[in-house]
Structures are given as C-alpha cells and as structure tokens.
Amino acid sequence: MNAVDILLWVVVPYVSLAIFVVGHYWRYKYDKFGWTTRSSQLYERRLLRWGSPLFHFGILFVLVGHVMGLGIPKSWTEAVGLSEGAYHALAIGVGAIAGIGTLVGLAILIYRRRTVGPVFSATTRNDKLMYLVLTLTILFGMSNTVLGAVGHEGVDYRDTVSPWFRSIFYFNPQPELMTEAGLGFQLHALSALVLFAIWPFTRLVHVFSAPLGYFTRPYIVYRSRDRQLGNRPTPRGWDRVGGGRR
Amino acid sequence: MTVTRQDGADAPERNTGFDSGLSEALVKTSRYFRNGEVSADLRSLHQIGGRDADSFYRDRWSHDKVVRSTHGVNCTGSCSWKVYVKDGIITWEAQQTDYPSTGADRPEYEPRGCPRGAAFSWYTYSPTRVRYPYVRGSLLQMYREARQRLGDPVLAWADIVDDPEKARRYKSQRGKGGLIRASWDEATEMIAAAHVHTIKKYGPDRIAGFSPIPAMSMVSHAAGARFMSLIGAPMLSFYDWYADLPVASPQVFGDQTDVPESGDWWDASYLILWGSNVPVTRTPDAHWMTEARYRGQKVVVMSPDYSDATKFADDWLAPHPGTDGALAMAMGHVVLREFFVDRQVPRFTEYVKRYSDLPFLLTLTPRGDGYVPGKFLTAADLGDVAEGAEFKTVLVDSATGEPHVPNGSLGFRFGESGKGRWNLDLGEVDPLLSLYEGAAETVTVDLARFDTPRGEGAVMRRGVPVRRIGKHLVTTVYDLLLAQFGVGRAGLPGEWPTGLDDASQPYTPAWQEQFTGVPAAAAARIGREFAQNADESGGRSMIIMGAGTNHWFHSDTIYRAFLTLTTLTGCQGVNGGGWAHYVGQEKCRPVTGWMTLASALDWARPPRQMIQTAYWYLHTDQWRYDQTTLDGFASPLGEGRFDGRTPADVLAQSARMGWMPSYPTFNRNPLDLADEAAAAGKQPAEHVLDGLRDGSLRFAAEDPDAPENFPRVLTIWRANLLGSSAKGNEYFLKHLLGADNAVRADEAPPQARPKDLVWWNEAPTGKLDLLLALDFRMTSTTIYSDITLPAATWYEKHDLNTTDMHPYVHSFNPAIAPPWETRTDFDAFGTIARQFSRLAATHLGVRKDLMALPLLHDTPDELANPRGVVRDWKAGECDPVPGKTMPKFVVQERDYGAIAQKWSALGPLVEDLGLQVKGVTTKPDKEVEYLRHKNGVMRDGVAAGRPALVRDVHWCETILALSGTTNGRLATQGFRFAEERTGTQMADLAAEHEGKLITFSDTQARPTPVITSPEWSGSEHGGRRYSPFTINVERLKPWHTLTGRMHFFLDHDWMTEAGENLPVFRPPLDMHTLFGEPHVGDTGELGITVRYLTPHNKWSIHSEYQDNLFMLSLSRGGQTIWMSTQDAAKVGVRDNDWIEAVNRNGVVVARAIVSSRMPEGTVYMHHAQDRLIDVPLTETSGKRGGIHNSLTRLFLKPTHLIGGYAQLSFAFNYLGPTGNQRDEVTVIRRRNQEVTY
Questions:
Q1: CB-closest option in B27, B29, B49 to A223
Q2: CA distance B1130 to B1159
Q3: Buried residues in B1057-1084 as b, exposed as e (16+ CB within 10 A)
Q4: What are phi and psi for residue B1092, nearest 5 degrees?
Q5: Which of B420, B569, B723, B745 sits at 20 to 30 Å (Cα–Cα) from B996?
Q6: Whether B334 contacts B524, CB under 8 Å
Q7: A221 vs B44: CB contact, 8 Å cut-off?
Q8: Of B327, B334, B270, which is closest to residue B302 (Cα–Cα)?
Q9: What is the ipTM score, two decimals?
Q10: What is the mean pLDDT of residues B47-67?
Q11: Does A222 reach chain B within 8 Å, measured CB to CB?
C-alpha cells in the first residue's frame, strides 16, 4: 500500500463526501431559488416522455441494487440462506435490466439535449460536465455488471468494495481492500466519488426535493397565518384586542 | 366533464375526484400522520403557519420610498409616475392615480401609462447610460498639448480649430468611437473656450443651441436656452423643424396651435381620426376615444394602412398616402352643396358670418379674358385714411346692402383708435354672405388646380357674382369658395361639375376617387354625416389629425381643407368639436414664465431665434442638391415671382426682407459691426445699410459656404438630432460634420443653381468646430459629438411638465441623486456658464452686439407690408427700411464676464418692462417681491438684490409665479389688459382663481389643474374641459389674423403665386420630376420603387426606448421596414429577410416585416430607429446603414417663408418652413442575407 492508495481510497472519499454534505447545506442556504431541475419539458415533450421515465426508474432500481450490494454485508445474506450464486444471478439479472433501462434512457435524454435547439440552448457548461461524469460512472458500473455476468474471472466486490465502502463510514478506512478490487471497480468508485463531489453544484440536487409528499397529500393546501398579529412576529408589548387567543 | 346521472345508479367511482382508489387510500391513511386538518372530501389540507416563503415575495415588492416624477422630453402622455427606490437603487415605476377629476358624469384620467414609460427605469443602470464626460480622443490630446504649450484654454482651442490639418484630424473621426473620459472641469473648460473663441472670431450668431419641446421639462430646456440667449446665440426652432407645426394654423387661426385636451374627446359625438394612430401615439389617452363610443360617438378612421386605430373604426376609409387633401376637399364640396346652397342651416350660416372671413369682400383683378382673385377690400379702398385703414377689411351689410367695416380686424388691434373695438361684435349688422341673390353682374374667375399627373398647375374657370364698389370689382370669400369647390348655382358662368358623381371636375366625391381610391359614395356619406352631426349636436364633430397628414410638403393645403370642414360646420370653439392636431404639439402652459427664463427676457430683449429647417437646409448644403427651380411649384396664374429661382434664393430674399430670421446674419462678426458703427458715430442700421450698399457687408444666407458663415458650435440637449430628426442625415454627416456618409445625390447643374447665392465649386465639409451633446444615453448624436456630458435622467432632477392634452401641471423629482458623474441639465449649464464667464471676462469683456431681427407676430410689425405685397429692396422695388422692408437692427450690450451671474438671478426687466405674450402684457411686480422671499436674494455682482435662480427649484417657482396659467393674479391682470383692447368681458374667466398661485410643492403633491389665462384661447372656467377658441367664440375676442376671423382666403402675393389663396388639393411631390427617381411601382433589378413613409413607432417614442431592452424584446428589435405582401412578392422578399432601401440621399439596411396591414406601393420605416442597435454594413456603400432620415432630405416650401404681414409674420415655433419628409420614395431590394458588422 502506498501513498497513492491512501490518497485515492481514503483522502478522496472523505473529501468527496465532505463536499457532498457541506455543499448541499451551502447550496440550500444560499441558492434556494436555484434549487431546481431547470426542467426542459416546456421545450420538448415527445422524447422526454420516453427518456425520462426510463432513466429515472432505471436509476432508482440501480440505487436499490447499490444499497443492497454495498450496504448489506455478505454474511447477512448468507445467514438468510441466499447463496453466492443466487445472489449474483439476482444482482446481475435485475441489475442488467435496470442498467440497460438507465443507459437507454440516458442516451435518449442526451440525444434530445443535443439535437433539440431550445433544449440545447438551455444547457449549461455545468450540465455538460455533470452529464459526462454521470455517464462515465454508469458506464463503468455497467461494464462491471456485464463482465460479472459473462463469468469473467474477477473479484467478488462483496469482499472488497463493499467492506471498504462501509469502512469509510466507520471512520476506520481500509484502503487495502480497494487495491484488490480490480480496475473496473476502482474506476467506477472513483468516478462516483467525483460525481458526489460535483453533485451539490449541479441540477442533481433535485434528488433531495423529489415531491414524494404528493403521493399522500390532498392536492389543495391552505396555510393560515401563524398565531400572530399581521405578517410579522407579534412585537413585544402588543396584544390582540380582547387579550386572548383568537 | 362528468354528467351526474339523476338516479345515481351507475355513478362511477371517480366521483371522488381522485385518479384512483390508490390515491384515495394514501391520502386517507396519511391524514392521521399529518399536522393540520384534512377536509372531509379529502381534497384540501388546512395548516397553520409555514408561510415563511411569503417573505421573499413581500421583500421583492417592498421599497424605501416612492417619488413622483414623469417622462421628460418627447411624450405627450404627461403621465405622472411613482418611482420606487430600494436601498438607494431605482427599482421600478408604476402609474400615479391622483389626477384631477375631469368632472362628474365623465370618464376620469385613469387608466394611464404605457409600456414605454413603464420601461424607463431600465435606463438608469443600463449599458447605454452615459456615466462620465467624454471627449473625442484625438481632440483631447491636441487640446492638452496646446493648453500646456500656450497656457490658455481659448488660445489652445484656437490653435486646433484654426489649423486645417488639426481640425481635419478630429473631425474626420466623428462617429467612429474614440471617445475618452475627461473630468467635468476639463470638458467644460474646453466648451467654454470654444464658445469664447467663436464669439471673438466669428460672433455669437455662429453658435446655436437645439433643445426641443420645453413643455415636457421646462427647467432643463430653459437652463441651456438661457445661456444661449445671454451670450447672443440663436436657439433653433423645433416645431417647424419636426414638421409638426401645421402651417395652416398660423394661416387660418393666426395661432401657433391650440387644441382640445384629450378629455374633450368624450364631448365629441362624431370623431374622425385622420392620419393619427391614437392607440399607438396617444396610448394613455386612447381610452377616452374608446369610452366615448359607448356614449354613441361614431369613430371614422382615415388611414392608408390597417393601423391600430382602425380596429376602433365604425368606418374606415383608406386614401392613398398624401391624397387626404382630395378627400377633404370632396367632403367640403358635399357640405357646401347640401348644407349651404341646396338648403341653409341657420347655425352654420350664423357661425361663418361671425367667425370666418367668408362674408368679407375680395377684389378681382382682370387677367386675360377673365379675372383672378386679388386682395381683401379694405377701408383704405373706401377712401379711409385713418390709422390702420389698410388692415380693416370690409363686408356688406345685408340690411342696407352697403359696405361696412366691422370691428375686429387687424386695423383695430394696434393704436389708440382701435381701443375697445378689436372684437367680433357685429352690432346690428347682419353680414351678407353671398352677392348671388339679385346679383346684377357675374364674371368668370380663373383658379389654380393641381390635380394633374405630375402635380403641375392648371387652370379652371368658374363664375362668381360680383359688385362694383368704387373702382373695385368685388365678390365675397364665400362666393369664391363655392367657385373653388365647384359648387355651382344657376346662372353662373364657367365649368361646373354636373353633380357629386361628375369625376371630370374638381372637387366632387367622384373626382377624388381617382386620386385617393376612396369610393365616391363613401366620401360623400362621411362628409354629409360630419356636417349633419355638427348641425344636430351643436358643433360636436371633431377631427383628430396626425402626422400622417401633417408631414407632407403640401400639408398646409391638406390641413386647410380639413379646417374648411370644421369651420363651415361651426365646430371650432365648441367643446367636443373642431380640429384636434396632435403632432408634437406640446403645450408649455406656463409659457410666460418659461419664456422669460429660457430667452433671458429678464436681462435683455429680444433674443436671437432661428428657423431650424432653413438653418440646416443651408448649413448642411442640401440646397446644393436641388435639381430644379421653383417654376414647377408655382401656379400658372402667378406673375412668375418664383421663375428661375430656387428655394435658397427665396430663403435669402425672406431673410433680407426681415420676414424670417437668419443666423449667422452677416458675413461679419456682429460685435465688430457694432464697434465700427460706434467708432464711426453712426446708427447701427445706417452702418449696416452703408455696408450693404458698398458691398463690404453681405447677408450670410447669400453665401453659406464661406468659412466665415459656418455655424461653429452646436449644443444639443434633450434631443437626438443625428439619430432621429436630421432630415437629410447623410448631408449632415458630410457637410456639417465631415464624417463618413452615404450621400449619392448629384449637385445642381449650373442652370438650376441659385441666382442670389455664391456657388463654391468645392462644397465645404466639416463646418462645425464643436458638437456638444448632453444626454443620459448613448445615441447617434453622442457618438458623433466631440464632447458628451453625462446627464441626469428624468428620475434624478426637479422640473415641471405640461402638455396640450392635459390641463394640469406636475413635477419631476429626484428619486436618487444623479449617479456616477452625471449632472442635471441645470447643473451642467450652470457649470458651463461659470467656466465661460471666467474665460470671457479676459477674452471678451463687455461688447456690443448688432442684431438683425425679423418682423414679429402679435406686434405692430405685422403692419409692415399692407395687402401682403412683396417689395424687395434688393431688386429696387422699394427702399431698404429697417423694420419695414428689412429686418430690425438692434444693439444689445453683452457683459460676457457676467453671464453666469445673470444666468443665476432673475433680472430687472421683468417688472421694468413687464412680460408680453401674444400681445398681452402683464406686470409681475408683486411676484418678483414674492420670489425674493421664496428663492432668496443675490448679494453681490450685477444681480445684487435680485431673486436667486441658483437651484432648479427656484426656476420652477419662478416659472409658476410669472405665468397666468399658474398664477391667478397675472391671468386676471392679463385679461383686463386684453379687455381694454377688445371691449368685451374676459377677466371673469380667471377671476375665480385670482388669489391662487400654484407653487412647486403643489405640483409635487399631485398634478394641479391650471387657470384660464390669456396665454391661450380656451377656458377651464368652472372645471370645464379645455377646447381651443372658446374665448374667441363666446367672448367675441378676435383671432390674431388680418380679418380677426378664421381665414379661408389668404391674399399674400406669394400665396397667389403658389395658387393657394384658397383650400386646394396638391398631390405629393413627384420625385421623378424633381430628382429623377424612378416612378412608384417601377420594378427592376435594383428592386421595387415605393413610397417611403416614416410614421411613429409602437415600441418607442422617437428614438427613446428603441434601445431599451424591454422594448427590444416586445418588438422585433433592430431596424425594420414594413412592406405589403404584394410588393414583397414582386422582389422576392420574405418576412424577416435583410433588405436594402436606397435612394439618392442614402442607404438603409433593415429587416423586412412583410404584412398584409400595409397597402401596396408604400413602405413604413417607423421613424427614429437609431443606428446603434443591430445595423450592419450595407452592400451599396460598404458603410454602416443609416437611420430612417438617411433616405429623406429637406424641401423648403416658399410660402412658409412669408413674413411681415398680419398672421403671416414670424414668431418662434409659430411660423417657418417645415422639415417635411413624407413625399420621398426609395428603391427596395432583397440583399445578401449574410450581414457583417
């Protein structure tokens, strides 16, 4: 293990995750009105109708896969009787479908972004960088999945990448695990870390403001004023006529 | 969308309104986990609090203060605005709503405002804002070097401009950028040095100031004008220059212009919008027109295109551009035929007998085997030799059948004998309108007509009843008018139309159809309706007339045809009736106070004032490009007075006869002339006459290309000459500035050159030494200027605003202090005056200035030329008599070191001589005392003890205190003065407000209604809506004309020569005959030839707002030309294509807007689209494309130069040649779509 490994698998992850956390706090604090997807639905709908759900549902399944793969130790799955083979078959099967959906969706979205004039005009340099990093990350991840599927002799990421990932959060980093993970996983992890680092400064922040509440909320919301006089907090020494609460 | 079945049997599940049961289940479940209350139907959630997001929107519209102001120089809206300021920054504006009421039972001023005004605050911090003083780099370098070397600013300036090489170096750079920052001290020192040097070397009349429309910001205008007046430099007129002055108004009314306020449109029951696009050009007032329609008003629109106004029209007539006169003449024909001859309408007959010149007698002069109209019969012709007899016109008393000299004509206006008799009271006399009944004799008269293919004159012969009075054969104006309009009566000789449907004879409805394209029946019907409505409503038929009919070479004839309609039907001087001319007519209501300050009448009188059209016609050398003489202009019945002569010849004649002002006046410095006269012990006039006689002195107008006669210094503020009003823009660039230009015209061939002017083989270029502009935004004018000073905007200063359309006065106030290094016009000219005085004290000292002044309207000068007979002393037709057949010569002392002191204090002539306006004198002694206390008193210097004018608010208070419209005491006093002359009662009109003085703080509080005053002809008495001439009609005060009545007939020699004694149809100028341009409709490889009109813009007010981001976004942005679909198809132009418009005057490159709104054969380039936004290089010249006025040029109409005779006498902005530009044509083609900048 050398300094490069420590840099790549200890320093970079902490820096990246720190930027991710602090960056979101900063963005939320100073750029609330910029916290948006900058939707381009007004400019184009036909391609978006296919590309967007494909991509978004795909990436959600990919997320679930990552939660399982990275978050759940191998011992746990084996404890519930899921064999190594079955786990991989499941992971590769579902993962491939989700990944292909994601990639096709992304391809449609990028094609649309480049060829539809108004959409392209509304694309910033920030967006282009984000697309590049996101696409690379997905491609690296997908290639790992595909290589795993074709039975390529490789490492079991559940013995290397996953424990390393979890070790970051225990504040007991184990960079040596990543040195054994193979180039594919290393590249995937690195590009993901870059993605996390730029995340708060891109439109990706919309992940944290997906309107999930809409599923369960009545569609009309009335908000009466706070229990105070007028629009501002009741100043000291002022009371409602009659003294009591309304 | 769902239909609920009555029985409810199969009511579908989604009656709940949810997409599915799943949604419903989710909401049902979640309600137990939420704050707040979910309604029973599951559709709404009620929560308390959580409204923090509101605060953003509350903050967005919160502000620290609101300041009242308005938009200054070029809009007739007079809307008062709230300017919002937040954190010291102007954020936005919104309309004020606190206008004075128009009275019960009528619509109020609200709503007012327009998108342009609402976009103004963008300018404050915009990229186009001028933030610092700028000087042309090459000039500044040379100046700094010379200043260092010579140690004196004036010598340094002389060192540069007197060296041809140095002068060329900076003049050739004009318009090409290279402006660099300078300090105010340095820039104003240069300006002062230029003025001092020019006065010293050439004389003060080689300097000029141009700032238009004082009404819209009086102090800003007066600040510079006062400086110019004090140093003896002429201010250039603007009303005539803009071609907004309807020359018909002085001709017919003897009044510059007076019109109804827009609130009076409500009173009209028949409204014609004639060449006026009210929703676009009078946006905040248009609502009255739409509201009056709900009251039953009929709206008729006369417009060649489907204009914005047209959609409000109950009837739309579309005469071909420039032929409106023919339509109006035909309507007049119908009115005369059906309401005067076939039957008589008592109201009309009574009206024209009392208020028009129709009953007056005209002499007829034999010519060939017939007669031609001569002059008005006067008391002098009846043997009267008393005072003014030559100006007392005569009518026939119908009771006695004898000639009668009624009160009210010009002969009663001046002198002791006329006191109490200058009125329209006819006593027992009933004037005889026509000599037809029982006429013993008839003769045929020859009348000029111009309804010919190229507009050249022809003759028609018609009969009139006549009488002999003494040795004179006379008829009435009415009888002659019937002959002119072709309204025949049994037994009269001559050629007459057989009926309304006779197209062969002027001026029937059928005849007009061949020129206008308007169906004869429609023309007859509208004419009939107009008169019928006037009869039934008591004169409430109104014509709103606009630039579409007023910007033509022959617009005075078009307007006289219009005024025939409103006068015959008794609509003038009636609320809701008469003419409503809204073309740049910005009424400065407190005119006396403004004029006193602007012209510095409190220190010296009179000032130099110049007719701007003539000024530029000569000094931009446009006269050198006239290809023909005036022969084709004249009537075939004339005496050849214009034969072989050019407009420049006529102009020189007008100047030397004292008819029109002319500056520079002589080819010598007027200061030196005064010194020489004094040295020789001669009277100034004597000295001038001697010089003219021995040839040592010449009028500059006869040699405008001699270097000693160039204009040397020009200051422009509140205006954009080179991006907007400069008709013949490319000639300005070439000859005045010496800059790059696209003039393509040929100079006159030898036989077409002026006879009385010196022809220099090489036309001079770059005449002007200093072009100085003050502006808050970059325009073509600032780009071409040698020095540009950064001005405050209208939201950054104190000032006053009034207009013609709104009878109130309101204020400008600074929302913020002028930002960066900007200064108000007031401060800027104060600084210039102080710098000037400092340098002038040593270089100039106290000098005497010999001024040549024209014969003035509303003064006894009007009596200089009895009967309007032209006598040219130079031709030996009379003696040169100053003030009679020549200009008046006056010497004024100018203490050049004390200019700044005088500028900033109110001088003593206010109370010593009183203030005169339109022949009424007031004596504001108490007001001066009041101003001493209000403004403070100057402690020392030449103005010690005088009221201070050291702050802009002092100027505002002074203007308000010295004018009748804002000071009831002076209004009443003025009326009492006028009553002495008229003998009729008028003072009661103002007496209700005798104790009222409007102060500046009143105008800051809210727009304040003005007081009825003798400064104007209408009345606001008792809250009445303003309509012009109501005082004339109701109080029998004469119009300021020869007869004291409204004139159909003008008997001046030159009017006869032009064939325009009476209303007449004259078609647009034929550019093929005059300049060899192709015919309209010609299509060739160079493109299609079209009429080129430049109407007002929807997205800007002149060049203002055209560069405003908001207006650029609302409009197409950049220069555009509107074309008809037919014309576009002929030359393969599609919408938004780049096109080039080319004629001899210049080149324009623009995008085409192809629209079915446009009539075939005509294009519109909305005027004043400046060249600073999106103007590429042209294919034709390789230079940057021009502005709308790059394709136009000036045409002087000789009759506009008449002076020294009754109402045809000069006053500033009252009379002068118009800068008309509508008769032009251009060739348009599709160009290469790849443009470069």
A1: B49
A2: 14
A3: bbbbbbbbbbbbbbbeebbebbebeeee
A4: -115, 105
A5: B420
A6: yes
A7: yes
A8: B327
A9: 0.71
A10: 88
A11: yes
> Are A223 and B43 an interchain contact pair (Cβ–Cβ within 8 Å)?
no
* Closest chain A residue to B50, measured at CA: A223
Q: How confident is the model at residue B190 (pLDDT cuts 50, 70, 90)?
A: very high
First to last CA, chain A: 70
| Selection from B1181, B1170, B1175 nearest residue B1237 by Cα | B1175
Tokens of B755: 């006879």
Q: Are B742 and B796 in contact (CB under 8 A)?
A: no
As a whole number of angstroms, the distance between CA B1107 and CA B1109 comes to 6
Closest CA to B277 of B304, B298, B297: B304
Beta bridge partners of B1030: none
Q: Is A234 on the interface with B (CB under 8 A)?
A: no
Q: Which amino acid is at B985?
A: Q
Cα separation, B754 vs B625, whole angstroms? 11
Among A169, A141, A181, smallest CA distance to A21 is for A169
- B27 closest CB neighbour out of A216, A224, A225: A216
CA distance, residue A113 to nearest chain B CA (Å): 26
Q: Looking at the DSSP assignment, which residues form a beta bridge with residue B42? A: none
Q: Which of A218, A224, A225 sits opposite B38 (nearest CB)?
A: A218
- Residue A3's Cβ-count burial label (10 Å; 0-12, 13-18, 19+) is exposed
Dist CA B444 CA B463 (whole Å): 4
Question: What does the block give as tokens for B980?
Answer: 């002495």
The whole-angstrom distance between A237's CA and the closest CA on chain B is 22
Closest CA to A51 of A122, A131, A124: A131
**Which 3-state string (H, E, C) describes B967-991?**
EHHHHHHHHHHHHHHHCCCCCHHHH
Q: How far is CA B1040 from the centre of its chain?
A: 20
Instruction: Give A149-184 pLDDT, tens digit per residue.
Output: 666 556 678 888 888 999 999 999 988 888 888 888
Closest to B620 (Cα-Cα) out of B554, B714, B543:
B714
pTM of the model: 0.88
Residue B336's CB is within 10 A of a number of other CB atoms, namely 23
Residues of chain A in contact with residue B54, where contact means CB-CB under 8 angstroms, are 231
Beta bridge partners of B868: none
Give the CA-trace dihedral at B1084, B1086, B1087, B1090, to 10 degrees. -100
Query: Can you point out the beta strands (E) in B915-977?
Result: 915-917, 920-922
Tokens at B640, concatenated: 């050849």
Closest CA to B275 of B540, B553, B565, B544: B544
Residue type, B112: R
Q: Answer for the pair B948, B957: CB distance below 8 angstroms, yes or no.
A: no
Give the integer Cα–Cα distance in Å for B774 and B792: 9
Q: Please tell me the number of Cα atoms within 13 Å of B1067 on its side-chain side.
A: 17
Question: Is residue B272 a contact partner of residue B302, using CB atoms and an 8 Å limit?
Answer: yes
Tokens linked to B698 = 């010449």
- Strands (DSSP E) found in B686-782: 713-717, 770-775
Q: pLDDT per residue over A46-63, tens digit each?
A: 999 999 999 999 999 999
Distance from CA of B21 to the nearest CA of A (A): 12
Residue B522 host element (H or E): helix B520-537
Question: Which of A218, A227, A231 comes nearest B43 by C-beta?
Answer: A218
Cis bond before residue B246 (omega within 30° of 0): no
Element (H, E) at B911: helix B909-913
Residues of A in contact with B45 (CB under 8 A): 217-218, 220-222
Strands B134-136 and B787-790: antiparallel
Q: Residue B1189: which of B512, B559, B618, B725 has the closest Cα?
A: B725
Torsion of Cα atoms, B1012 then B1018 then B1021 then B1022, to 10°? -140
